[in-house]
Design a protein that fits this description.
heterodimer, A: mainly alpha, 7 helices, elongated, B: 86 residues, mainly alpha, flat
């Protein structure tokens, strides 16, 4: 369904931001591939420490939250304000669930002495140290994006309720939605690269 | 539209299941390429449907992803010509 107003200029702006984000994470993915190329066996053994179940669950959670945002944007065009708010609340709940699971995962690693610079980790082969360095930086930077998304959607819900986002003024919700899908796409690549190499 | 979105969502979940299965199949070196290929298909679904690139008419929206991919391809190609030949 076409938006009733032309928001394409606003979308060009957010897409330029998305390109810069792709290059930001792209640099980290490049670093990952270079180190994995050099330490393939270490990366595989290090990946055993990750919970495949938690990673897969978080993938499903983020994919579902993307659907919720897409539906919120759709119902804004249909002028169904209450459904917009409802689906954005679902999005926030799923984003929070993602962060809680991530938090449990990190806590479990820390308890096992696996954190950057820990004596336990420094005793491991160099490839394992690099793997966990990249794991914490890349999932950490991604989790920061999820947290920012959580804050943004709180504001978006407020703006929808007060009418500052409406079918006639959809740009803010559309752009926040695009940002959120980007966060989903980044995780779609992080998930196989860290969880599925055992 | 809602139906399309739900179908894309089902497709994304199915591909996630497929990638888990493919990773458990002991494909060796092929495994990483399978995972990346599935991730690329999933991203394409998100870009085309959830991010509406399929419905964008202006040229700039069609150039965005090719530009990003070309830039990354140059980075990766140059880096690997170095580290793979040392």
């Amino acid at each position: 369904v076409e938006s009733p107003v032309d928001t394409s200029k606003a979308r060009i702006g957010i897409w330029l931001f998305i390109l810069s984000e792709i290059l930001l994470f792209g640099g980290l993915f490049l670093l990952y591939s270079a180190y994995r190329y050099k330490h393939a066996a270490d990366f595989e053994s290090a990946s055993d420490a990750l919970s495949l179940f938690d990673g897969t669950l978080n993938t499903a959670i983020l994919i579902t939250s993307s659907l919720m945002v897409a539906l919120a944007v759709h119902f804004l065009r249909m002028e169904r304000k209450r459904l917009v708010v409802l689906f954005l609340v679902f999005t926030m709940a799923l984003a929070a669930a993602f962060l809680v699971i991530k938090g449990f995962e990190w806590t479990e690693k820390f308890e096992r002495g696996l954190y950057p610079g820990s004596p336990e980790l420094l005793a491991r082969p160099p490839g394992v140290i690099l793997y966990f360095g990249l794991y914490f930086i890349m999932t950490g930077l991604h989790a920061l994006h999820v947290f920012v998304g959580l804050c943004i959607f709180a504001v978006v819900i407020f703006m929808t309720r007060t009418g500052r986002i409406a079918a006639s003024r959809p740009a803010v919700l559309e752009n926040c939605g695009l940002y959120w899908h980007l966060v989903d796409i980044i995780w779609i690549f992080l998930y196989p690269l860290f969880y599925l190499i055992a | 539209v809602v139906k399309t979105y739900v179908m894309v969502w089902v497709g994304l979940l199915a591909l996630t299941a497929a990638t888990v299965v493919s990773a458990s199949l002991e494909l060796g070196r092929l495994s990483i390429y399978t995972c990346i290929a599935i991730a690329a298909v999933k991203s394409t679904l998100v870009l085309l449907f959830f991010m509406h690139l399929r419905y964008e008419k202006r040229l700039i929206f069609k150039l965005l992803i090719p530009i990003a991919l070309a830039t990354l391809a140059i980075f990766i190609a140059l880096t690997f010509t170095d580290i793979a030949t040392r």
